[in-house]
Amino acid sequence: MAQAGSNIDSDWILARLARPAPMQTDFVELRSSRLLKKPLRISGQYRRPDENTLVREVRAPYAEVTTIGQGQVSIARGNGQTRRVPLARVPQLAGIQASFGALLAGDAATIKRSFALQTQGSREAWQMRMTPNDAAMKQHLQDITLHGRGMELRCIETRAVAGEEVQRTLLASAARTLPANASDAQIRSLCHNGS
């Protein structure tokens, strides 16, 4: 449900995020760690060639294509080797595929079964916090917060149960406008404020 004074609710956001397959979007993923001076920056493209397949193609700083679909995960590295694992052995990836697929399909019922949703903001600048309902997912994932403007999902912040670091994934125009030497504060601002 929407927070008091908000112009939006989760149904409004989920309806705007629906993207039927095939679709694709650029991404820049930033992984922070106390061991790194600055976040590790991974860039590439997410693709959804059909309703049941999710492809994550990393182009820099290394080459790797991860495909989730047809009951398995396949990881093709730049050296040409491909590793295949049944989804049953990595249930957290199966959950991610189902959730991401439901999000892009505009399947509000599935999202609401899997997550408790809290929204805030306006149609011009909104956020939706997704807290897992599933006990197995709760062991690994604290929450996911989506940040967007209008119909555009611009940033995903993921907080794992272990560790304090937030993983940020900038999408679409936010990924394309991120400066190469952006500081953590600039990245956070682009994610939260859209500028």
Helix content: 25-40%
- Amount of beta strand: 35-45%
Strand order of the largest sheet: 6-5-4-3-2-1-11-10-9-8-7
Largest sheet: 11 strands, antiparallel
Number of helices: 6
Calculate the mean pLDDT score and round it. 85
> Total number of β-strand segments?
11
The ordered H/E elements are: HEEEEEEHHEEHEEEHH
Q: Give the class from helix and strand content and strand pairing.
A: alpha+beta
What sort of overall outline do the alpha carbons produce when their principal axes are compared? globular
Unreliable stretches (pLDDT < 50, length at least 5) are 1-5
Spatial separation of the terminal alpha carbons: 27 Å
Radius of gyration: 16 Å
